Amino acid sequence: MSKAVVTVIGKDQPGIIAGVSATLAEHQINILDVSQTIMSNIFTMSMLINLEKLDEEYNKLQDDLSALGQKLHVEIHMQREEIFDAMSRV
Amino acid sequence: METSQITETINMVSEEHLDIRTITMGISLLDTIGGTPQDTAKNIYNKITHYAENLVSVAEQIEREFGIPITNKRISVTPIALIAGNATSDEMLYYAHALDDAAKKVGVDFIGGYSALVQKGFSHGDLALINSIPRALTETDLVMSSINIGSSKAGINLDAVKLMGETIKAITDKSDTANAKLVVFANAVEDNPFMAGAFHGVSEADVVINVGVSGPGVVKRALEKVKHEPIHIVAETVKKTAFKITRVGQMVGALAAERLGIEFGIVDLSLAPTPARGDSVAEVLEEIGLEMVGTHGTTAALMLLNDAVKKGGVMASQRVGGLSGAFIPVSEDAGMIDAVNAGILSLAKLEAMTSVCSVGLDMIAVPGDTDATTIAAMIADEAAIGVQNNKTTAVRVLPTNNTKVGDMVDYGGLLGTAPVMPVVKKSSADFINRGGHIPAPIHSFKN
Asked: Is the ipTM of this complex over 0.90?
């Protein structure tokens, strides 16, 4: 129960990565891996983050990221890593 | 981890309606039996509210952390007829209200188990409970009822079939929609998390968590990628998709059980539609190659679908149970409703389909002037399919007053909207009124 995936999908514009990284930094979150592509002007990013110190404050970070998504007009999801593993690995 | 896996999972939820349909907490009430019905009802309320206190909040937190919707939170209990063996029909209402009050207190969507198992005969409590059903279902909001009238081992209790036909009509006299809260089973299972038929069997542990997963939309999207391929490729695709869906159910169920500190029971890997477009079993069948569900070939396509869902799910879960397969309710499935309205899907075809789906004639509206014996005869036909073929079958037909064929009846929320369907206008009364017992089929004597 220590890692989560943050995904961002929306129209590309300056400041998306900066905004997400800043919010994560405010919560003392370490980014483990980032993958980003732009397909016909749609920005998609997946970020693997370390949650070890955050289990208590999970909901707070999720709310902050959602608020940021609204501000930037992009969709930001944060989900624990296990759901992706469950579906794709035996 | 690959980005494509992440995208696939997110799309399944956001575009293909993948959801955990229900986390159902099964609670045994065998230790709540007290001196008077009022004492027992109080014990029932206390036990349910104690164990299920955190069910909704734990489920909501899991939804949040994993980004997977958990559509319903439910409770199933020991069949009340077993708990209230000495109660009169009027006293049964104490139990119904205790269940309803407890469900409202803990905030679940439904509570199932206002039930009796009468496949071989009636006990005192069974009859009292069945006679109380019309009042119980109209005086409460969240209580769901199920009656098992046949099994492959015991045969079919035709007296019970007749009584259930009369009971369904008696509910209609009191309410247009309360019938949707009652299901009549043959070969009912003891760990089913789906409503209206969920109850907590007597052989189950004291308290368990069962999970029902769904996702017809996910299967349909997967099949769109194998258009014109041979049919065994369809079966393989359904299997792989069912595997993925069930893995999510297994993970969520195990986690919910751990956080609630109780035992994890089973995953029921059913394709359960909702009224939303794109969340339809009918659309899956049409994707396999039928112009519209109900046409020739529907039964074969459904047989393949139901079987492949089971095969895919079995390996994905530590314990599979419940009904596990494809549900074909009419009112809850936009594609089924379209096919009925187009005159393509008939009651007769639906009956054929129930011989290969996971349950039975489900959420089917019929005219309010349909005879009780005709409804009983539908129950008998359905039970015969289940008993002879060693499968669960169920009937949830809904006579609705002041309606004619083609009218639409709204049941609200997940229960959807049903077109009133025609029934055969020849009497089955002399058959049903014989009463008695249809013997168990010869191949059930295996000992």
From this structure: no
